[in-house]
Histone-lysine N-methyltransferase SETMAR (Araneus ventricosus), 56 residues
Amino acid sequence: LKSALSGRHFRSNEEVKQAVKNFLRSLGTDLYKNGFLKLVSRYDKCINVGGEYVEK
């Protein structure tokens, strides 16, 4: 996101919001899908150690 918006100038907060939305939409659904799938294994690790800190 930082590199995608770097050097751009916005006239309003609404322009910034729209630029961020456009960037997130451009990432595609696979990125989000993979992120959610990784959550399952991370939740399992957390549950298996009783909520203690978990390393990657």
